[in-house]
Write a structure and sequence with these properties.
The chain is 78% helix and 0% strand. It has 201 residues and is mainly α. It contains 8 helices and no strands. It has one domain. The longest helix has 31 residues.
Length: 201
Protein backbone atom coordinates (compact mmCIF):
# COMPACT_ATOMS: atom_id res chain seq x y z
CA UNK A 1 0.00 0.00 0.00
CA UNK A 2 2.71 2.47 1.00
CA UNK A 3 4.48 2.01 -2.33
CA UNK A 4 1.30 2.96 -4.16
CA UNK A 5 0.67 6.22 -2.28
CA UNK A 6 3.07 8.42 -4.33
CA UNK A 7 1.71 6.92 -7.58
CA UNK A 8 -1.90 7.50 -6.55
CA UNK A 9 -1.11 11.07 -5.47
CA UNK A 10 0.47 11.76 -8.86
CA UNK A 11 -2.54 10.27 -10.65
CA UNK A 12 -4.88 12.33 -8.49
CA UNK A 13 -3.11 15.59 -9.34
CA UNK A 14 -3.10 14.73 -13.05
CA UNK A 15 -6.81 13.85 -13.00
CA UNK A 16 -7.60 17.09 -11.15
CA UNK A 17 -5.98 19.44 -13.67
CA UNK A 18 -9.04 19.76 -15.93
CA UNK A 19 -11.34 20.21 -12.93
CA UNK A 20 -9.06 22.95 -11.59
CA UNK A 21 -8.97 24.82 -14.90
CA UNK A 22 -12.75 24.64 -15.31
CA UNK A 23 -13.36 25.76 -11.72
CA UNK A 24 -10.90 28.63 -11.96
CA UNK A 25 -12.38 29.86 -15.24
CA UNK A 26 -15.92 29.75 -13.84
CA UNK A 27 -15.13 31.66 -10.66
CA UNK A 28 -13.09 34.23 -12.62
CA UNK A 29 -16.24 35.17 -14.55
CA UNK A 30 -18.24 35.84 -11.37
CA UNK A 31 -18.40 39.15 -9.60
CA UNK A 32 -19.19 37.34 -6.36
CA UNK A 33 -17.99 33.90 -5.26
CA UNK A 34 -19.19 32.62 -1.89
CA UNK A 35 -17.83 30.01 0.49
CA UNK A 36 -20.80 27.89 -0.57
CA UNK A 37 -19.63 28.04 -4.19
CA UNK A 38 -16.16 26.89 -3.17
CA UNK A 39 -17.56 24.00 -1.14
CA UNK A 40 -20.06 23.00 -3.84
CA UNK A 41 -17.44 22.83 -6.58
CA UNK A 42 -14.98 20.97 -4.36
CA UNK A 43 -17.54 18.40 -3.18
CA UNK A 44 -19.06 17.68 -6.61
CA UNK A 45 -15.77 17.49 -8.51
CA UNK A 46 -14.09 15.51 -5.72
CA UNK A 47 -17.01 13.08 -5.55
CA UNK A 48 -16.98 12.30 -9.26
CA UNK A 49 -13.20 11.98 -9.37
CA UNK A 50 -13.52 9.37 -6.62
CA UNK A 51 -16.56 7.67 -8.14
CA UNK A 52 -15.26 7.16 -11.67
CA UNK A 53 -12.24 4.99 -10.74
CA UNK A 54 -14.55 2.78 -8.69
CA UNK A 55 -16.89 2.45 -11.66
CA UNK A 56 -14.00 1.58 -13.96
CA UNK A 57 -12.63 -0.94 -11.48
CA UNK A 58 -16.01 -2.64 -11.07
CA UNK A 59 -16.63 -2.79 -14.80
CA UNK A 60 -13.34 -4.59 -15.24
CA UNK A 61 -11.19 -5.29 -18.25
CA UNK A 62 -13.97 -7.14 -20.07
CA UNK A 63 -15.72 -3.89 -20.94
CA UNK A 64 -12.69 -1.65 -21.39
CA UNK A 65 -12.84 -1.70 -25.19
CA UNK A 66 -16.50 -0.64 -25.10
CA UNK A 67 -15.91 2.22 -22.68
CA UNK A 68 -12.75 3.38 -24.44
CA UNK A 69 -14.67 3.63 -27.70
CA UNK A 70 -16.94 6.41 -26.48
CA UNK A 71 -15.69 7.97 -23.24
CA UNK A 72 -13.53 10.61 -24.98
CA UNK A 73 -16.38 11.60 -27.32
CA UNK A 74 -18.77 11.85 -24.37
CA UNK A 75 -16.31 14.08 -22.52
CA UNK A 76 -15.82 16.27 -25.60
CA UNK A 77 -19.57 16.57 -26.18
CA UNK A 78 -20.32 17.55 -22.58
CA UNK A 79 -17.53 20.13 -22.53
CA UNK A 80 -18.67 21.53 -25.89
CA UNK A 81 -22.23 22.01 -24.60
CA UNK A 82 -21.06 23.92 -21.53
CA UNK A 83 -18.61 25.91 -23.67
CA UNK A 84 -21.44 26.94 -25.98
CA UNK A 85 -23.40 28.21 -22.98
CA UNK A 86 -20.38 30.17 -21.80
CA UNK A 87 -19.98 31.72 -25.28
CA UNK A 88 -23.64 32.74 -25.23
CA UNK A 89 -23.34 34.28 -21.77
CA UNK A 90 -20.06 35.95 -22.68
CA UNK A 91 -21.34 37.61 -25.83
CA UNK A 92 -24.52 38.68 -24.02
CA UNK A 93 -22.48 40.31 -21.28
CA UNK A 94 -20.28 42.08 -23.80
CA UNK A 95 -23.37 43.66 -25.37
CA UNK A 96 -24.80 44.99 -22.09
CA UNK A 97 -24.52 48.55 -20.90
CA UNK A 98 -22.21 49.29 -17.98
CA UNK A 99 -25.11 50.04 -15.62
CA UNK A 100 -26.59 46.63 -16.42
CA UNK A 101 -23.29 44.97 -15.68
CA UNK A 102 -23.27 46.65 -12.29
CA UNK A 103 -26.84 45.74 -11.41
CA UNK A 104 -27.78 43.09 -8.87
CA UNK A 105 -29.53 41.12 -11.61
CA UNK A 106 -26.29 40.58 -13.50
CA UNK A 107 -25.99 36.98 -14.72
CA UNK A 108 -22.44 36.81 -13.43
CA UNK A 109 -23.79 37.13 -9.89
CA UNK A 110 -26.15 34.19 -10.37
CA UNK A 111 -25.46 30.75 -8.97
CA UNK A 112 -24.27 27.94 -11.23
CA UNK A 113 -27.02 25.44 -11.96
CA UNK A 114 -26.70 21.95 -10.53
CA UNK A 115 -27.09 20.46 -14.02
CA UNK A 116 -24.21 22.53 -15.38
CA UNK A 117 -22.02 21.64 -12.41
CA UNK A 118 -22.78 17.94 -12.74
CA UNK A 119 -22.10 18.08 -16.48
CA UNK A 120 -18.71 19.67 -15.90
CA UNK A 121 -17.87 17.20 -13.15
CA UNK A 122 -18.74 14.18 -15.29
CA UNK A 123 -16.94 15.52 -18.36
CA UNK A 124 -13.73 16.23 -16.47
CA UNK A 125 -13.74 12.90 -14.62
CA UNK A 126 -14.41 10.39 -17.42
CA UNK A 127 -10.68 9.78 -17.85
CA UNK A 128 -10.67 8.44 -14.31
CA UNK A 129 -12.55 5.39 -15.63
CA UNK A 130 -9.32 4.27 -17.25
CA UNK A 131 -7.56 4.54 -13.91
CA UNK A 132 -10.09 2.15 -12.42
CA UNK A 133 -9.57 -0.26 -15.31
CA UNK A 134 -5.80 -0.17 -14.89
CA UNK A 135 -6.11 -0.82 -11.16
CA UNK A 136 -8.39 -3.80 -11.82
CA UNK A 137 -5.95 -5.24 -14.37
CA UNK A 138 -3.05 -4.80 -11.96
CA UNK A 139 -5.08 -6.35 -9.14
CA UNK A 140 -4.74 -3.20 -7.05
CA UNK A 141 -7.24 -2.18 -4.38
CA UNK A 142 -9.61 0.65 -5.29
CA UNK A 143 -11.34 1.93 -2.13
CA UNK A 144 -8.51 3.91 -0.55
CA UNK A 145 -7.00 5.07 -3.88
CA UNK A 146 -10.41 6.38 -4.99
CA UNK A 147 -10.89 8.12 -1.64
CA UNK A 148 -7.43 9.70 -1.87
CA UNK A 149 -8.08 10.84 -5.46
CA UNK A 150 -11.35 12.42 -4.35
CA UNK A 151 -9.77 14.19 -1.38
CA UNK A 152 -6.92 15.61 -3.47
CA UNK A 153 -9.33 16.76 -6.17
CA UNK A 154 -11.52 18.34 -3.48
CA UNK A 155 -8.60 20.37 -2.13
CA UNK A 156 -7.23 21.40 -5.54
CA UNK A 157 -10.66 22.36 -6.87
CA UNK A 158 -11.34 24.51 -3.80
CA UNK A 159 -7.99 26.24 -4.31
CA UNK A 160 -8.79 26.81 -8.00
CA UNK A 161 -12.15 28.41 -7.22
CA UNK A 162 -10.47 30.69 -4.68
CA UNK A 163 -7.85 31.62 -7.26
CA UNK A 164 -10.56 32.43 -9.77
CA UNK A 165 -12.29 34.61 -7.18
CA UNK A 166 -9.08 36.58 -6.73
CA UNK A 167 -8.84 37.05 -10.47
CA UNK A 168 -12.48 38.13 -10.66
CA UNK A 169 -11.89 40.91 -8.15
CA UNK A 170 -9.26 42.36 -10.46
CA UNK A 171 -11.21 41.87 -13.68
CA UNK A 172 -14.86 42.17 -12.68
CA UNK A 173 -15.71 44.38 -15.66
CA UNK A 174 -14.35 41.84 -18.14
CA UNK A 175 -16.63 38.95 -17.21
CA UNK A 176 -17.96 38.61 -20.76
CA UNK A 177 -14.49 38.20 -22.20
CA UNK A 178 -13.57 35.80 -19.41
CA UNK A 179 -16.66 33.69 -20.16
CA UNK A 180 -15.63 33.48 -23.81
CA UNK A 181 -12.09 32.63 -22.77
CA UNK A 182 -13.41 29.98 -20.39
CA UNK A 183 -15.45 28.45 -23.22
CA UNK A 184 -12.33 28.28 -25.37
CA UNK A 185 -10.50 26.59 -22.51
CA UNK A 186 -13.25 23.97 -22.25
CA UNK A 187 -13.07 23.30 -25.99
CA UNK A 188 -9.29 23.02 -25.74
CA UNK A 189 -9.63 20.46 -22.96
CA UNK A 190 -12.10 18.52 -25.08
CA UNK A 191 -9.77 18.53 -28.09
CA UNK A 192 -6.88 17.48 -25.82
CA UNK A 193 -8.92 14.48 -24.67
CA UNK A 194 -9.59 13.49 -28.29
CA UNK A 195 -5.89 13.84 -29.16
CA UNK A 196 -4.88 11.71 -26.17
CA UNK A 197 -7.23 8.99 -27.43
CA UNK A 198 -5.69 9.05 -30.91
CA UNK A 199 -8.70 10.47 -32.73
CA UNK A 200 -6.52 12.64 -34.98
CA UNK A 201 -3.70 10.15 -35.38
Amino acid sequence: MNSLIPEVCGIAVALSIDAMVVSCCWSATRQRVTAGDVLKFAVVFGFFQALMPVGGWLAGAAFSSVINAWDHWAAFGLLAIVAANMFKEGFSSENKEDDTLKSGDDARDSDISLLTLLTLAVATSLDALAVGFSFALADYPIVWPAALIGIICFALTAAAVLLGRTLSEKAARHGGRLSIFGGLILLAIGVKILIEHGVFA
